[in-house]
Amino acid sequence: MSSPALRLFAYPSLERDGVPVGLKRRRAMALLAYLAVTEESRSRESLLAFFWPEYDRGRARADLRRTLSTLKQALTGSHLEVDRDRAAIKKNSGMTVDVREFQRLITEARRHDHGNGVLCNDCRASLEKAANLYRGDFLEGFYRGGSPEVEDWQFFLCENLRCELAGVLERLVVFLSMREQYDRAIEYGRRWLALGPLEENAHRHLMRLYALCGRPAQAIRQYRNCAAVLETELAVEPDEETKHLCESIRKRRLSHPAAEHETAPPMSEQAIVGAFGVLEAHEDDAERAIRGALDIRAAALTQDAAVSMGIGYWPFLGMLRSCFRLYGQPDGKVRADKMVGLLKKLREDGYLTHDQVEEIGPLLGNLLSIRYGTEWDEMLKAARPDEIRHRTFQALKDFFVALAQKQPVVVVLDDLHWADSLSLDLLSHLTEAVNDAPLLIICVYRPVTAIVACRSVPSHHTQVLRSLHGAQAA
Length: 474
Fold this sequence. Notes:
Blueprint: E1 5-7, E2 13-16, E3 19-20, H1 26-38, E4 42-43, H2 44-51, H3 57-75, E5 80-82, E6 86-89, E7 96-97, H4 98-111, H5 121-133, H6 148-178, H7 182-195, H8 200-212, H9 216-234, H10 240-250, E8 269-276, H11 286-302, E9 307-311, H12 317-323, H13 332-348, H14 354-367, H15 385-406, E10 409-413, H16 421-431, E11 439-443, H17 470-473
Parallel strand pairs: 1-7, 10-11
Antiparallel strand pairs: 1-2, 2-3, 4-6, 5-6, 8-9, 8-10
Helix pairs in contact: 1-3, 4-5, 5-6, 6-7, 7-8, 8-9, 8-10, 9-10, 13-14, 14-15
């Protein structure tokens, strides 16, 4: 018997040999999707709190048993592992999951490094396969009620997957444009723009493509569409770059894209700056506060502050290296001593407890690949990956709270639209700290998708920034 296939893009379905396998219980599909995407063993208690928060304990346990029984009958074989305490989709069981395959293909292309961020034909093949897997949004039309936790999980994962698709489509558009495969590039460009009509860069690519394939009138029409949507939604005009491109098309002075794009845009990379110390609060003006943070960012750049290109997953690595002053320190013992010194200083000043230092030290050392030569190096060997991730998130939260209690901290996360789901999980956890300490988190991202997982933070504020001059956008 062949292994099942779980389709989670668009309306979800479970299939075997192309034939749908019916799941009578709607919550069974939601639970299956959750276990399959997270790829982690989950305790029954956590599943009860996540899927049945409104039920009393007895009723919730009974419903979970029925749901797991339904899944075992539908999956057959050894795909589902269930015991008295935990449930998980068995790793390497052969079940295919389109969302996991989509993420694997993107990771494959990202890791296929051949210099300067360029694409090769192998990268193109992986990204095209990923784009073809995306038949619709994650669980589209499926789950719109019930547990708030499940609804939030679906919403933020959906937005992150949309963001990843936008990055895939952009890279394909650039790759095909440089090879003069304009019609195919236009197809991907239209899909990219459909994800977010406010994405001005997508408009520009389409304008250029239409012009290059001999359709200048359509290029001008694309510009007018861009101007109209920006005026309607944001009450702003197109950027000067967009206006200049339109003028070049009108005057037939457009250059070939290969002359303007020596490399493809980066995959899931983020420019990150940690700036410590608040210059001015501007509590009465949200836009001035955000622009003030951008000024802090610019000042930090001139003072050799931490600037790192983080490869997905851990967007705070550059900040941590700066906090511990690890830059320019190749010696492992010196790096370890600096980390221990700062943590002990925070403990002595009363910002961290002894137990917190004993927890934070090993976890951040593991994160930064630092060995201490002490028992700290052995503390995580027996821990499960999901346990390490949870404890690391808490350790980072405790560390930033301690820093903020010592001195107010501003964290600026730029280009957050490239962030992967684990980075957003970390950010969501960190936002809980803003109520405990003078910590300001500024998240800057394109309006292609709303991806910041902080809707539950009472002090969360969204501000659309209008056009920035060169110094602010640097």
